Amino acid sequence: MSLANKDRTSIGEHTFEGQALRWSLEGEVLEVELRRTPCNELGTIALEELEALLRTLEWIAHRVRAVLFFSSVEKGFCAGADLVELQRGLRHLEPAAEVDERSYANLRDFVDRIHRVFRRIDHLPVPTIAAVHGFCFGGGFELALCADVVIADRSARFCFPELRLGLIPGFGGIPRLKRKAGEALVLDLLLSGRSIQAQRAHALGLVSQVVGRGEALDTARRLAAQTLLYDRAAIFELKCFTKRNIDDELRAEREVFLKLLTSPTVRASLSDFVARKDDPHAYLPRVPSAIDIDDLLRA
Questions:
Q1: Fewest CB within 10 A of the end CB: N or C in the chain?
Q2: Could you give the CA distance from residue 30 to residue 55 in angstroms, rounded to a whole number?
Q3: CA 198 to chain centre
Q4: Which ranges of the chain does DSSP label H, i.e. alpha helix?
Q5: What pLDDT does 290 receive?
Q6: CA atoms within 13 Å, Cβ hemisphere of 187
Q7: Are strands 21-26 and 29-34 parallel, antiparallel or unpaired?
Q8: Where do the domains of the chain lie, and which CATH numbers do they carry?
């Protein structure tokens, strides 16, 4: 069944099951499950299904009072962009060659689309909650930053490892991280490439609550239920008041990301990543401590 047909089928049932996402309306809370192994990488399939999610939210807006994102994948919430797919789109080029117009247009289309999706999630008129465990890296961290509230279990690790590929975050991570925690933290996380634990993320204001392993989803559900007690219009005004406009910064980040993405350095780094993608350390920064590696692999 095509994605479009599944979209139409889901209107009456308020449910959807795809390759990357599964969602269902539980009372007045739309629960969105990230479900694609190995760790919910964000590629074309995930993007199409996120777009379908937003169409569903338009159709059933009168029924939805909160949206909850979580992952059923053991490794974590999301390890970031699908670098294998990204590399596949550029591998026909010689290392020193200029990126041709067609390849660039495809890359820009993907990045523009994911920016539109993340911006709409960021500005949904209802509370959005992310329940996070394990890996929350790169694009996955950027998705979590779109949520109003992030609840992390103690296995969660947050990281922007893009500089090791010759990139910066490109899905809105820098402006949204600055909005939450300021410029100093952005520079520290990107320049170090280190992962931070849930408790540290909480201390920095990136995470609202830290709970025990396996408890984030239940805690998020309780919070979602609490928000149902409040007036919908008041919640909308609260979000408009507290989430400052960062559209100019998002556009600027996107252009820098696309400029770097087409460089020979990035193409070589992507090829190296793909060659070692089965290495359990492939998602980690290049020089993490042994303790960080062990903790992450236990997550």
A1: N
A2: 13
A3: 16
A4: 3-13, 44-59, 83-88, 101-122, 139-146, 173-181, 183-192, 198-203, 216-227, 232-242, 247-261, 264-275, 290-298
A5: 36
A6: 3
A7: antiparallel
A8: 3-298 (3.90.226.10)
């309780």: which residue's tokens? 222
User: Phi, psi at residue 33, to the nearest 5°?
Assistant: -100, 125
Catalytic pick from 85, 162, 183, 253?
A: 162
Known catalytic residue: 162? yes
165 — pLDDT class (breaks 50, 70, 90):
confident
Residue among 221, 217, 48, 70 nearest 140 (CA): 70
For 233-244, the pLDDT digits (tens) are 999 999 999 998
Which amino acid is it at 120?
R
Place of tokens 């992952």: 71
Lowest pLDDT segment from 90-94, 128-132, 218-222: 90-94
